[in-house]
Structure formats: C-alpha cells, structure tokens
Amino acid sequence: MVRVTINTFGYDHGAPEEPSDITLDIRRHVFLATHQVPDAEQRTGLDPDIANTVLSAAGVARLVDNTALLAIGLLEDVADARARLVKIAVGDARGVHWSVGIAEGIARVLRQNDVETEVVHREIQVRHTEA
Fold it and tell me: Is the dihedral of CA 126, 113, 68, 21 positive or negative?
C-alpha cells in the first residue's frame, strides 16, 4: 500500500490541484543552473546527469533528508492506519529538472526506510511506484 505520494509540478503551469501535507517551493533556491549540462533542455530530472547536478547542489541533500524524515514522522503520528498517506508536492518554475530530481531523491530515502512511495511528475507525465 502506498504510504507517500510525491507530485512534482511547474508553477509556470499552475499550482497542484490537490492539497499536500508538505509543499516545497524551490524556485528561489535554485543556485546551480542545470543549463550547464549539455542538452539539458531536452532532458529531465530523471536523467542521471541532471539528477546529479540537482542533488549535488548546496543544501539539497539536507532538504531531501529532512523532507523524508518529516514525512516519516507524519506517518507515525497518524493513529488510524487507513489514513496513513502523506502527500508531498515539489515545485519549481517548469517542473522538469529541479523538482523532479529532488522528488526522486526524497523517494529514494523513503524507500530505503521501507516506505512505499509513488512519484508522479506532472509536467513530464511519468508515474511509478516502488516499495
């Protein structure tokens, strides 16, 4: 059973339709430009080069770990097991590089802690679930 859903989006295309328990607006915190990666415009945060660029930026590893820990804490605080679903939204301007890389990083940490997580990338129309 999925316990955490992570949705990525681009603010240029509108805010998420559904409310989230945790929303990360990373538009102001993008310091390292993914355009330094060759052909970045044709790639997404699922691409290893883009993902590495995003996840190696200052402060991103801490953001990923702390968001995952917050989600786990929220899951543990819900008394009713049937209601144990945490929704996380991660947004940047376009929703294809930074939000995707960060969301995948959060999902990886959650999965390492045995939390079944689903990730949906709205702007690139990708959905996957892993335990």
Answer: positive
Helix (H, G, I), strand (E, B) or coil at 126: strand
Q: Which two tokens stand for residue 88?
A: 């996380």
- Give average pLDDT by consecutive 10-residue segment, the chain, 131 residues: 90 91 87 60 82 87 97 82 85 89 96 95 74 52
Phi then psi dihedrals of residue 130, to 5 deg: -140, 150
Q: How far is CA 118 from CA 18, 72, 87, 88, 96, in A?
A: 15, 14, 10, 10, 17
Cβ pair 6, 73 in contact under 8 A? no
